[in-house]
Design brief:
214 residues, alpha/beta, Rossmann fold, 7 helices, globular
Length: 214
C-alpha cells in the first residue's frame, strides 16, 4: 500500500484540493506502491502531456493503481499500454539488484478486474521488451512512459525501447531512481542518461524524469 506521506499542513497550501483528494483515494485502495507525492507527480505529468499525440505506457504495473491514476488524468483519450509479467520480478542482476525474483506478483485477472471500468488499457503480459515486439514495426509514439521495474535490466530495456519513440516534450518517469533498495535502477538510468542530450531531473521522493527534447 502507498505511504500517506504528505504533511497535512503542506496539503492546505496546495492549489487543487480535489486533485489531492483523488490521490488519497487511490492510495487508500491499496493498489499502488508509491507515496502520495509520487502519485501526484505522475497524475500531473499525465495531465500536462495529454495534449501530445502519442500513447501512454507503463512497464511494471503491479496492482494497477498508477495505471488507474494515469487513465483518470488523461481522461481516457489515448491508449495506455500496460506491460508486466504479472508473475513478479522476472530476473535480478547479481550484485546489482536487491529485489527477489517473483516479488511484487499480482495476477493479470486481478488487475483487469480492478481496471474494468476503463476502456483505454491494453494489457501485454510477459517479460519486457519481448512483450512489446508488436511495436517494433509500428509508428506509435508515446507522450508519457512510467518505468517501475525495480531492476537494472528492466529499467535499461525500457529506456532504450521508449526513448526513440517519445513525442517531442514527452516524458519518461522512472520510479525508484533514488531508492536505496533498488540500486540497479539508478545504475541503469545513469548509464543511459550519460549518452543523451537531455538533463535528468529528480522529482519527488524516488522518482526521476527525462523530458524528450525533440
Amino acid at each position: 500500500m502507498a505511504y500517506l506521506d504528505i504533511d497535512p499542513a503542506i496539503c492546505e497550501h496546495l492549489h487543487d484540493k480535489n486533485e489531492l483528494d483523488l490521490m488519497f483515494e487511490i492510495a487508500r485502495e491499496g493498489k499502488i506502491a508509491m507515496g502520495i507525492g509520487e502519485i501526484l507527480s505522475l497524475y500531473r505529468l499525465a495531465k500536462r502531456t495529454a495534449h501530445l499525440p502519442g500513447a501512454i505506457a507503463e512497464v511494471g504495473v503491479y496492482r494497477g493503481g498508477s495505471a488507474k491514476m494515469m487513465g483518470i488524468a488523461s481522461a481516457q483519450k489515448k491508449a495506455i499500454y500496460l506491460f508486466d509479467t504479472f508473475e513478479g520480478i522476472p530476473q535480478a542482476t547479481a550484485g546489482v539488484d536487491h529485489v527477489l525474483v517473483g516479488q511484487f506478483a499480482n495476477s493479470l485477472e486481478n488487475v483487469k478486474n480492478y481496471l474494468s471500468e476503463f476502456s483505454c488499457f491494453k494489457f501485454h503480459p510477459g517479460v519486457f521488451p519481448e512483450s512489446a515486439v508488436f511495436l517494433n514495426d509500428s509508428s506509435e509514439t508515446f507522450s508519457m512512459v512510467n518505468l517501475d521495474t525495480d531492476i537494472y535490466s528492466g529499467t535499461l530495456s525500457g529506456l532504450n525501447f521508449f526513448y526513440p519513440r517519445m513525442d517531442p516534450h514527452g516524458v519518461i518517469v522512472v520510479h525508484d531512481y533514488n531508492s536505496k533498495s533498488c540500486p540497479g535502477v539508478r545504475k541503469a538510468v545513469d548509464e543511459f542518461a550519460a549518452n543523451i542530450p537531455e538533463t535528468l531531473i529528480d522529482l519527488w521522493s524516488t522518482q526521476a524524469l527525462i523530458c524528450k527534447s525533440k
